[in-house]
Amino acid sequence: MTQPGPDQWICVxxxxxxxxxxxxxxxxxxxWQAESAxxxxxxxxxxxxxxxxxxxxxxxxxxxx
Length: 65
Known about the structure:
By secondary structure, this protein is α+β, with helices and mostly antiparallel strands. It has one domain (9-64): Rubredoxin-like (Alpha-Beta Complex). Helix content is 28%, strand content 22%. The protein is built from 2 helices and 3 strands. The chain has helices at residues 41-51, 58-64, and strands at 9-14, 19-23, 32-34. The N and C termini lie far apart (48 Å).
């Protein structure tokens, strides 16, 4: 049986420009920073989709520019 997940999430981003969702009630992991206010998971995923257009690490994006 699965447990229900958290109600509130945040968007987090690491130093390489990768994005993820993270439960708002937990500390943000080392190497990541909060990039949004708490919201439901769907809203966070929509924000990430709008803001993260290139999944390559930022260093690779810059090297190929």
